[in-house]
Amino acid sequence: MTDVLIVGAGPTGLTLACDLARRGIAVRVVDKSPEYPRSSRAKGPNPRSLEVLEDLGVVGAVLAAGSAPLPMRKYRDGLPVADADPYAGSSPTPDAPYDRGRLIAQWRLEEILRDRLAESGTAVETGTEVVGLTDRDTTVAVAFADGSGTDARYVVGCDGAHSRVRKLLGVTFDGETEAEQQMVCGDVEITPGVLDRDVWHQWFDEDGAVMLCPIPGTRIGWWYQSGPERDAEGRALAPSLEGFRRLFARHTRLPAGHLTGAALLSTYRVNVRMADRYRVGRVLLAGDAAHVHAIAGGLGMNTGIQDAFNLGWKLAQVLRGRAGDELLDTYEEERLPVAAWTLDLTSERLRATLEAIRKPGGGLDTAVTPSTTGLDRGYRWSSLARPGGHGGVRSGDRAPDAPCADAGTGVPTRLFRVLAGPHITVLGFGPGTEHTLREAAAAHGDTVRTVRVYDAGEAPEAPLPGALHDRDGHARTAYGVAGDTVVVIRPDNHVGLISDADGHGAALRYLDVLDGAPEADRMWGAGMVDGTGKG
Length: 535
Ligand SMILES: Cc1cc2nc3c(=O)[nH]c(=O)nc-3n(C[C@H](O)[C@H](O)[C@H](O)COP(=O)(O)OP(=O)(O)OC[C@H]3O[C@@H](n4cnc5c(N)ncnc54)[C@H](O)[C@@H]3O)c2cc1C
Fold this sequence. Notes:
alpha+beta, 22 strands, binds flavin-adenine dinucleotide
């Protein structure tokens, strides 16, 4: 029996599959495409997605295959008028190791995720289209286009903007399509030496625009984006190599023949839509299947990756019988407002960018704001966020990083290394938290990692196993905690609870909510688990 059938092997489905597979969940990933999908789309993970990819153990491969985001060179009438680096002046901080995203082709990132998935023995099943879903109470019967079928305990539709899963569920996808705002895209080749590969070139003229960004890992490959050519009636024409050449020559003033090849051509229309539900019984939606929006700010793929990371641990806990099925409702409770916020932000950034490019020197840097890093998204409103926290971090927020040392060996490390993996983490600041740490470890075993965080002035002869030494006080500063304080961090590295050590019962009760024995009294009341994962 498949525990989770993931429909769609884009970045959302692959992230979810990697997270579930490492938790020992029996997962299948199917994609209707006969080959691994390849398209000219996202340009890479933002800082929050890099943190997710670090947790999944693939950030090294992503950093190696990609490049740093490039400064943007803006032209008018063929002449360079301004250079802008949206990340100038930013640098990693103790609480955030990635201050900027990474440029990497979406298909290359997908390759890296597929390789990671293969390590747990799971391969994407291509040429397998889902055409039907039937809820059978404890399972979902899934029908494929070739007439075969399978049963799964849960199904997650990561099948993109035109999601068949969403349509089968009857979930509405309200919003707008801006038919007029179109862009043609593709991967093109440019004669070497014609354009500097250290910048993202953007020609914005009164009568149109062309953008060319070098594709990392290639010698002559570029991401091409422009407005479409139009016929005499103003109708947009389909993208073609010849059309790309004409637009390239018109805006760059370079010979058309320097654009030597074009592949993965597509037309992009601005769609701003989101699902009104993320869950119908045992079927859930994630990524573009649940929300689409303007590409300004580069958040589409990133929001999908972050949806998947929110959902993976919840599905696993329910399937393992460690949490009631109601835990899955917190996925929509947390991620649907993030989608609504993303739709608003990206629409506003698109408007600002379109305004900026009317003047010489305007460009895509207008789309980038501190919020497009994804680092400020949290779930303070969530029923999983217990009141608490002072200073910068509150329950629901992203858990910050902090450089510190292994308390046993003195070897420098980072909090993120301790958080990485499928477990819940309990940090204990101050000696008064040790009782809570011991009880949590005894009650939850490997699912919960307990970490005593010793302050600079504490020098224990025999530190607790796995303890950290907060030599420079970065951890206390990042979490804004004073005195004896327990911090519970969810498996997706959001803070769940911050509590004084005297209230240690609160921490233990909270752990039972995230990782309870089946008979535990849950916060949702009667949500008992029968061992099949059904509440
Ligand atoms: C031009 C352009 C530029 C972009 N730039 C950025 C950017 O810079 N940053 C960013 O974050 N995002 C960007 N995006 C958005 C990003 O590409 C998408 O948000 C992302 O691909 C969504 O990932 P997904 O896994 O949810 O869906 P998809 O990548 O669409 O994957 C869905 C998969 O489901 C499969 N499928 C569909 N139906 C079925 C079925 N019935 N059965 C089985 N399989 C099925 C499809 O074959 C496909 O492989 C851009 C998009 C475009 C078009």
